[in-house]
């Protein structure tokens, strides 16, 4: 088989696998806040559990919004680090490699079919289809913040324990409350990873369909024609 034709087939197979090459990394959240308040430390504890819960929510919501934004950046076409932009770069590179693979096979006899193949090696229709379909990723969302906050662990320090009389009464007045947000954070991170995975799978499926429909399906019938022309002009 003509070695240049083999190279072309290799390039076409790489076009098929463009979506599978997308990054599988997950967003990293910045825990730039105090996610634990000890009930045993007066300066960071609270006089009631409701006060502790309010502070836990205040501390958690910025991280939750950060996770929402990170998820959206994965699929929004305008995001420079998202899948759309990454696929566009990868597809352009591989289309360029495929165009280069055509050059050594160009002769007067093969020029017409190579021109038809070359005209199909453009990303416009694929990326346009994916941009139009991007809003479908809106269905991949995190649970509401209250769902994760329900995992928060609360603790109380009661200095009246083991005391009696006036000491016991004074101790009851000095009960302090704290919280630990780490279970809520772990639940958020777990859901974020799963949601990103599910959303990526849906995006890749759309990308595979678009590449198949707009590039590979119309291109494949031209390959046997090109092969026959190359074969007949071989010595």
Could you explain the architecture of this structure?
This protein is mainly α and 235 residues long. The protein has 9 helices and 3 strands. The chain has helices spanning 3-16, 49-75, 83-102, 111-120, 124-133, 145-149, 165-173, 182-219, 222-232, and strands at residues 36-37, 153-157, 176-180. The chain has a 3-stranded antiparallel beta sheet with strand order 1-3-2. The longest helix is centred in the C-terminal third of the chain and has 38 residues, at 182-219. The mean pLDDT is 88.
Characteristic terms for this protein:
mainly alpha, 235 residues, 3 strands, rod-shaped, three-stranded antiparallel sheet
Rg (CA only): 30 Å
Low-pLDDT stretches are none
Q: Characterize the overall form.
A: rod-shaped
How much of the sequence lies in strands comes to 5-15%
- The span between the termini is 13 Å
As laid out across the biggest beta sheet, the strand order is 1-3-2
How many strands in all?
Answer: 3
Number of separate helices? 9
Offer a quick outline of the entry:
Helix content is about 60%, strand content about 5%. It has about 240 residues and is mostly helical.
């Amino acid at each position: 088989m003509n070695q240049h034709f083999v190279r072309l087939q290799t390039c076409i197979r790489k076009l098929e696998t463009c979506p599978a090459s997308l990054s599988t990394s997950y967003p990293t959240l910045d825990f730039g806040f105090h996610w634990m308040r000890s009930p045993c430390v007066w300066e960071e504890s609270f006089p009631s559990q409701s006060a502790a819960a309010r502070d836990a929510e205040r501390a958690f919501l910025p991280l939750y919004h950060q996770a929402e934004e990170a998820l959206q950046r994965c699929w929004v076409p305008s995001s420079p680090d998202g899948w759309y932009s990454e696929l566009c770069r990868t597809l352009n590179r591989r289309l360029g490699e495929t165009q280069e693979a055509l050059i050594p096979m160009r002769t007067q006899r093969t020029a017409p079919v190579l021109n038809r193949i070359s005209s199909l090696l453009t990303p416009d229709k694929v990326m346009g289809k994916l941009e139009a379909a991007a809003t479908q990723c809106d269905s991949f969302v995190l649970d509401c913040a209250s769902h994760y906050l329900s995992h928060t662990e609360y603790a109380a320090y009661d200095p009246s324990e083991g005391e009696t009389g006036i000491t016991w009464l004074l101790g009851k007045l000095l009960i302090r409350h704290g919280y630990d947000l780490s279970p809520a954070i772990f639940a958020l991170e777990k859901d974020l990873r799963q949601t990103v995975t599910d959303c990526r799978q849906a995006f890749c499926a759309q990308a595979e369909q678009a590449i198949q429909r707009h590039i590979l399906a119309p291109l494949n019938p031209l390959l046997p024609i090109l092969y026959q022309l190359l074969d007949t002009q071989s010595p």
